[in-house]
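Box 4.2: Ligand-aware structure prediction
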Amino acid sequence: MILRRFWGLSHFRPSGITRSRVNLPEHLAKRHMKYGHFDDERREYVITEPRTPWPWINYLGNEDFFGLISNTAGGYAFYRDAKFRRLTRYRYNNVPMDEGGRYFYIKDRDVIWSPGWKPVKTDLDRYECRHGLGYSSITGAKNGVEAEALFFVPLGTWAEVHRIRLTNKSGELKSLKLFSFVEWCLWNAEEDMTNLQRNLSTGEVEIDGSTLYHKTEYKERRNHYAFFHVNAPVRGFDTDRESFIGLYNSFSDPQAVLKGKSGNSVAHGWSPIASHYLEIQLNPGEAQEFIFVLGYVENSDEEKWESKNVIQKTKAKACVARFDTGKKIDAALGEVRTYWDNLLGAFVLKTDDQRIDRMVNIWNQYQCMVTFNMSRSASFFESGIGRGMGFRDSNQDLLGFVHQIPARARERIYDIAATQFEDGGAYHQYQPLTKRGNNAVGGNFNDDPLWLILSTTAYIKETGDFSLLDEKVPFDNDESRSRSHFDHLKASFYHVVQNLGPHKLPLIGRADWNDCLNLNCFSDNPNESFQTTENKKGETAESVMIAGLFVVCGREFVQLCRRIGKVDEGEAAQKYIDEMIETVKNHGWDGEWYLRAYDFFGRKVGSKENEEGKIFIESQGWCTMAGIGLDEGMVERSLNAVKERLDTPHGIVLNNPAFTRYVIEYGEISTYPAGYKENAGVFCHNNPWIMIGETVLGRGDRAFEYWRKIAPSFREEISDLHKVEPYVYAQMIAGKDASKPGEAKNSWLTGTAAWNYYAMTQFILGVRPAYDGLEVNPCIPPEWKGFTVHRRFRGAHYEIAVRNPNGVMKGVTSLSVDGKTVLGTIIPLLPAGSTCRVEITMG
Ligand code: BGC
Ligand code: NOJ
């Protein structure tokens, strides 16, 4: 009893949970639990207990068609845009949470169960969910029957494939009834909340053998429909939710399943669903599999109809035919695996610690792809209707993605740049379907433009493709106002120069990276948004963080100018950078650390003079990365202050002391309780800035320590506390002032993915694409004896072995390529297709 209270354990310990007392730092060395394990060989996370502390999800799909799937098969599917093209319904903010998904019900005599445990929640004899790269496989077993459900989106396909394999492991004949279930979303997911009364009358379906079609609004302006198919004859079906579930029942006990018989219902309005009913006889030892396809079709106006009100099904049938046998499924899954082999083949690390390698080689890169695809739109924390593609976010996401598919990165850079304004300013987000910018979450975030420089130069260094600079790109999506992409970068740079405040620091505008430090919004009205309200003229509040960011991005701009022969342009820009450095030293330094900002009244923010919020992470990160005042000791003092005041066992908090009262002139930040989100939470996204800052000083031990503290694989052992998935980063871990420090929230869609990848690979391991070659200049903990990296770079293969015989943290003493010594730290470019061995000794 005492023990239980002390460790905060509940009396209930579901089977499958592994308890461990592992090699954790002192502060975490309590008994903690995990709910599965990594299978690195197969690149999977294996969950062995369905009752995870929060739904642990995965993403299906790589290009146009996506699904979110939890470890109990909850979630939904959409085509490109989770708001306007959502195929299946999902209820955020539900009780219990994560209800609704792609469900299978198995009726074995009187026992009803689901392979993913939910929704029926019958205790299973065995449960296992394997989340892999682009697929999930969920297996349940009950009373001698095993059901393995595989979910994935084949490449180049606008559909999810669900293959369910039933095996009779008992010694007797099994007569089973299998019901499938999905609930259709009537496309615009927001309307389920805002105009539900309309939706209750518009629903329309069509039934054609084993294919159930959803065609709501198809006869008006929509040219798309959805379908759910199974590759076997059905004994029945349902397309009306009430007929299948029953008005007073729930997902866990649908009346059709209880009865063991479908209603063959045809939905007219209300809530259309798709459910197949199959009867299956399984001899002892026999296995049978069924393939379900949940797909999306677009038809042109000319080919919309087969006959009056009968939809044209050619494309749906073609899609289904591509996946009608187990062999075809195996091949399609094999293609997804090969696709990932190839993507992950660009960077393969080997250290002595699996927990590092699995993050760098598998999960961090995977998460980077997901953030690239989703931006901040659809996760189990982002509802898919609120936020589109962020200007800042999508640029940053490229840092972690560009080496995977540079061609898609190139396209993305244009999409983003095309929403920019002529003066360099930007909409804060754009909509993925139309690719048009909008003000839904405000505008005038004055850091936004600079990130375009960072993503573009990252792309060119990775590919050597300077041609994108000449491409004509519109401003504000207006073709008549197109200029070269280079001019967009120039506009970004000068947007800062032209928006300086009283101290000649950059004006912050709506906010900078910290969306919640709103220095021009004084709000005493709880009904207004901090992101769209701006009631003070933005002519005084200044950001030291943007100053640091400007120096880093500005140098990139200058370097680029020189590369392309725009020497004067580069020189002109350099002057502004030099001035900014001086300005920060004179007006952005607080004595022991960098100030954060000046508020609307010209008062210091993030200063020892403040009572709360004396120090903020963002300006320490950017000014140390920029090396501002390095010679004067500013970088070192700043980073020491971070260590002393912001570092915690769970990562670095954003500010300290946390705000405990509402500061009206600071905007949203102090609305959060102390220790959460932007108010002194561990905002994981900006921790890597400090890691990189530490590498500027050459302190590899500190850089790595910060990396390790927030790395999911290192936190796996404390999964019960961490709460969200142990294989991907979360946006925030509750900080030291919170009631439960170490509890994470908002997993998956966060700039944390790209920044940690960038910090680890390019600054700690130090393998950094450069215009003229591949640079290798590690900054590692002294106890590392070395590591190896395979890097595919511009078509050639670099087998890099780093040795650290003297236990240093930084400094390359020799570099050889195929036995030949090279001076400096840059491996010259190799012809595409070739392979070389690079030996590096630190000392
Ligand atoms: C914050 C949210 C805020 C949002 C507005 C985010 O950065 O973390 O709390 O509501 O910005 O866009
Ligand atoms: C989340 C946003 O997506 C990101 O752009 C922002 O920088 C952070 N929150 C911090 O406010």
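In the box above, the bound molecule is 1-deoxynojirimycin. DSSP finds 21 helices and 47 strands in the chain.
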